[in-house]
Amino acid sequence: MYKGKKVVVVLPAYNAEKTIERTYREIPLDLVDEVILCDDASVDRTIAKAKELGIGHIISHESNKGYGGNQKSLYNMALKLGGDIVIMLHPDYQYTPKLIPAMVNIIGEDLFPVVLGSRILGRGALIGGMPRYKYIANRILTLTQNLLVRYKLSEYHTGYRAFSRKVLETIDYNQNSDDFVFDNEMLSQIIYAKFPIAEVTCPTKYFEEASSINLPRSMKYGFGVLRVSIMHFLQRMGLAKFKLYKLNESS
To answer: Considering the domain boundaries, does residue 1 fall inside one?
Structure first.
């Protein structure tokens, strides 16, 4: 715990057998109260490896629900377990778990309710091996998003995120997409709900076993991001209303 706040790390897994151990071994278990892994119908030994490592909570999807669907299961379980600070970490070892204490501190001290691990601050992305075309696309999309949603982030596309319980209880993430655009819908909801966001510099690693989407999926994701940003703009300007931005009644 951190000052009486329960810390939960959630791992959205898909074919992560080769990388889950390296990721899990770096999680600061003296600070983290619970670790939850959700396996999205992997075809390798991800679940068996998670059990060998002694991961406390394992969710198994019988059929593939997608990256967004995976996160929904994880956040719902984290809230059910009483999580006050919830960190989403990819188990493919692309992001270092060593930043968890810093992210927990920022939320635990009530400085910011949301923290993103940014690959773009500094030169971490290119040094870590991010393909140049992905880097350029990231910069173009981020500039466009900042203009449309009227916010300023170094990137909207990191898979390393931490949230306070209040944030997860306020936005309706369960009605978001089950695909990769889920992440951007979540950030759009958070910004619209006026939750401030902190960013910390995060080194990243691109290697054979690290998960990555191909060019066609990347293009689909990019168009989805633009769609969400335009929706946010229209909602912000009062030109349209979308259920994406409806807050939970209990918040």
So the answer is: no
Residue 192 lies in a domain: yes
Q: How many domains does the chain have?
A: 1
Q: What is the pLDDT of residues 173-191, one digit of tens each?
A: 999 999 999 999 999 999 9
- Find the mean pLDDT for residues 208-226: 76
Reading the block at residue 249, the tokens are 């009644």
Identify whether 250 is part of a domain.
no
How far is Cα 102 from Cα 89, in angstroms, rounded to an integer? 14
pLDDT tens per residue across span 104-136: 999 999 999 999 999 888 766 666 677 787 788
The range of the structural domain enclosing residue 109 comes to 7-245
Instruction: Please give the model's pTM, rounded to 2 decimal places.
Output: 0.92
Alpha helices, H only, 88-128? 100-108, 124-127
Q: What CATH number is associated with residue 31? A: 3.90.550.10
By the 8 A CB rule, do 118 and 158 touch? Answer: yes
